[in-house]
Write a structure and sequence with these properties.
- The protein has helices at about 30-40, 55-65, 90-100, 145-155, 165-170, 210-220, 245-255, 265-270, 290-295, 350-365, 365-375, 385-395, 430-490, 525-535, 555-574, and strands at about 20-25, 50-55, 80-85, 105-120, 145, 200-205, 245, 260-265, 275, 280, 285-290, 330-340, 405-410, 420-425, 510-515, 520-525.
- The chain is an alpha/beta fold and about 575 residues long.
- Helix 1 (about 30-40) packs across helix 11, helix 4 crosses helix 6 and helix 13 runs antiparallel to helix 15.
- The longest helix has about 60 residues, at about 430-490.
- Mean pLDDT is about 80; it is low at about 1-15, about 125-140, about 175-190 and about 515-560.
């Protein structure tokens, strides 16, 4: 292809000022890419400009292929310097590009996952209670779904959360009524109770996305009887009644703002938004969330023996869906960098092509993923896949050997580290960059402390709720005893054999306190103190009262104390 600088268009790369690189594509690794780019810009001695547009995998491929780019005499001129997608280039596009002399590589660089999230009130948490080293909130209830039930939900065949087939999979949940038909009552629920009539709102992506392709492929592969091949793709005709959401931020908002919503999103983004995740059934018959899978190596396991031997090959047959393994997540996605092997569309001045080579090499380094990407819910590649990408970078022709060559200083390079074309981990362009990094560390520390505090508070509240439930039962028994005494006295007013002192009264727990926040609740008996206060009073005999000797007061008084404690507990639970 001839040099793009001969064409009069704002798309001409060689008319750029300074050293620039620009990419576009998938939203899943966008925060990871922005983080690495930001470090490159902050730690370069000479000014560089790097951008990435998070517009979805299908747009990233469209702009990389460039067959619609308005260059009349230069076919397949890319809009971007590199594309990114969570699906490989299709066989049709791969063949078309190669037949037109366009050679390119697809470089795997990071693993992610598609998760299904929901906002059913009071229901959430990891089914296995095991998130490994990944932080999670403590929750005792989970939502399990099989692929076929999930397909029926997304097809709008199941439209309410108290459907009998959903409840059959979730024995820990309760409902006052199971249904297989549509109901009209709409309300939220207390913990663990699916209220009859709570409708299911299905949220789905508006534009084409790799997450849509992963979900629909998973549903068809796992349950073809419910999800046909006609409903597979990055953009499909969704059933009527579903809600469209553009991009992952909109999807998170759709799920959060309407109780009872279910939708799919890049797992890392869903976890960052603190959305509740559905536990899906994997190929080994285990219900698990993507967090549990990641903590047990279940993302990388999906990649074993699935890749071609060369980055120049056709990847269209690669699928990481429903791979074997105990903790393997059923919807793992692999993000690719799409790069032309001939970079005539990128200017050579300032070593721009060499900068791209360094950028690509850093992205497939596991240490980079750990520093910049894991906090966004992404995982590094197994060693074999990383080597495939490094070999693919070597297959790119970066051009002019006389152009500046960029390098990375991670360990101190005396003298050489002060070179103009060095990205140095020892350098910052301003104190603001330092404070920004320090602030991010502080924010992450505060978030970790908040999660730990929340977990402890939840545990204390659970303990107090158990005690209050026991006290509620005790109050009922005491009330029943008092009613029985009154009835006996009214039935036998002259019978001295009805002696309250001999009536069995339930044991009152010993005095104890529970602390929630800054409030201390006293529960148990204070019999002696209360009895002393009542000692001077004389017993009465009216139509509504039963004559009780003072010797019984210590046994009756605790019911008042327990009732007060119960009421305080009720207030705290509001």
């Amino acid at each position: 292809a001839e040099d793009a600088s001969t064409h009069n268009s704002i798309q001409i790369p060689n008319e750029r000022s300074g050293i620039q690189l620009h990419g576009s594509g998938s939203t899943a690794p966008s925060k990871c890419l922005w983080s690495v780019m930001s470090q490159f810009q902050d730690r370069s001695r000479v000014p560089i400009r790097m951008t990435y547009r998070a517009v979805g995998s299908s747009t990233g491929q469209y702009e990389f292929i460039g067959d619609a780019n308005p260059y009349p005499d230069v076919p397949y001129q890319p809009y971007n310097d590199f594309g990114v997608g969570d699906v490989p280039i299709s066989n049709e596009d791969y063949t078309r590009l190669n037949n037109n002399g366009i050679r390119f590589v697809q470089l795997p660089f990071v693993l992610s996952a598609v998760g299904v999230f929901h906002s059913v009130p009071g229901v959430g948490g990891d089914v296995n209670g095991n998130d490994g080293d990944i932080d999670s909130e403590i929750s005792g209830l989970n939502l399990n779904l099989t692929p076929c039930i999930l397909a029926r939900i997304f097809k709008r065949n199941i439209t309410h959360w108290n459907h009998a087939d959903i409840l059959a999979l979730n024995t820990g949940l309760s409902t006052t009524e199971a249904t297989t038909t549509t109901t009209t009552t709409t309300t939220t629920s207390p913990d663990g109770t699916i209220v009859p009539g709570l409708p299911i709102t299905v949220a789905r992506r508006l534009m084409g996305s790799a997450s849509t392709k992963a979900l629909t492929s998973y549903l068809h592969q796992s349950c073809p009887s419910e999800w046909s091949a006609l409903m597979v793709g990055s953009r499909i005709d969704w059933p009527e009644g579903t809600v469209s959401c553009e991009g992952w931020t909109s999807m998170a908002k759709c799920i959060r703002e309407t109780p009872g919503t279910i939708g799919y999103i890049d797992a890392g983004h869903g976890h960052q938004e603190n959305l509740e995740e559905v536990a899906l059934l994997n190929s080994s018959g285990l219900y698990l969330t993507s967090k549990t899978a990641a903590a047990n190596g279940g993302w990388g396991a999906a990649l074993l023996n699935t890749l071609p031997t060369s980055a120049e090959a056709d990847f269209s047959g690669v699928s990481l869906l429903n791979q074997p393994g105990e903790y393997t997540w059923p919807m793992v996605t692999l993000s690719y960098l799409y790069v032309r092997q001939t970079l005539s569309h990128i200017p050579s001045k300032g070593g721009t092509r060499s900068l791209l080579k360094l950028f690509l090499s850093v992205l497939v380094d596991g240490a980079t993923i750990g520093e910049h990407c894991r906090r966004f819910g992404l995982e590094s590649l197994p060693a074999g896949a990383a080597q495939l990408s490094l070999d693919g970078i070597d297959a790119i022709t970066f051009g002019d050997a006389d152009a500046p060559q960029w390098s990375l200083e991670s360990n101190t390079m005396r003298g050489a580290g002060m070179g103009e074309f060095v990205i140095s981990t020892k350098r910052l362009t301003s104190y603001d960059a330092y404070t920004q990094g320090a602030t991010m560390d502080e924010v992450q520390s505060v978030q970790a402390d908040a999660r730990a505090s929340s977990s402890l508070t939840n545990a204390r509240v659970d303990s107090l709720q158990e005690r209050l439930q026991a006290l509620e039962t005790l109050v009922g028994k005491l009330e029943a005893t008092i009613v029985g005494l009154k009835e006996q006295k009214q039935t036998n007013p002259g019978d001295d054999s009805v002696n309250p002192d001999t009536q069995e009264v339930p044991n009152v727990p010993a005095e104890s306190t529970e602390t929630v926040g800054n409030q201390t609740v006293l529960v148990g008996n204070q019999t002696e103190n209360m009895a002393d206060q009542l000692a001077p009073q004389e017993p009465r005999d009216t139509d509504s009262d039963v004559t009780i000797s003072l010797s019984l007061a210590p046994r009756i008084v605790p019911s008042w104390n327990v009732a007060v404690a119960f009421l305080v507990g009720a207030v705290l639970r509001l």
